[in-house]
Design brief:
By secondary structure, the chain is an all-alpha fold. The chain has helices at 2-23, 27-32, 34-48, 62-82, 100-116, 119-122, 126-143. The chain has 2 domains: 2-48; 55-171, no CATH class. Helix 4 (62-82) packs across helix 5 (100-116) and helix 5 runs antiparallel to helix 7.
Amino acid sequence: MTEDIEDLKAQVRSLAAQLKGLLSPPAEAAEAAPEAVEEGAAETEEESWQFPPFILLLEQPAYDEELRALAEWVEGVLVPGYLAEPSADTRWCHLWTEHSVAIARLHALWLAWQELTDPATCGYSGPSTWHRDHYDPCMRELRQPGGPFAGCTKGEHQVGHRQPSLVPSAWSHA
């Protein structure tokens, strides 16, 4: 057992040295132009960091593409897996894409789902966190009797009751 521990320590030291080598710039480049190396590293880091923008801030055609992807997730995962039959207390509108509030909340829910169902980014407790912190509050807001689907029933769909008279320009697609 002592040999195993020593082997593990050696492996950790080796991996730490490799990591340090990967994170440190080569000595010649650092001596030649330390500012350039730092600026280049910052630019590379910014370029490699991609984040999904909030859907209501997207321009056409990116908005339509994101809405199409969101609709696939809502109709393929959320509705069949989570949403029970609508009732007076738990409303759902099959034309949810016509409700800007629903689009905004469901997009935020989907972004959180993408992050929190990947064990590489959140470990194995991510789905539990997603349910507690994202799904439950989102569904309470969307499906409550006074929520964005308040005027919608199985036979009737209403959007006009939720539309403000003046819409900020960034929200104009909704």
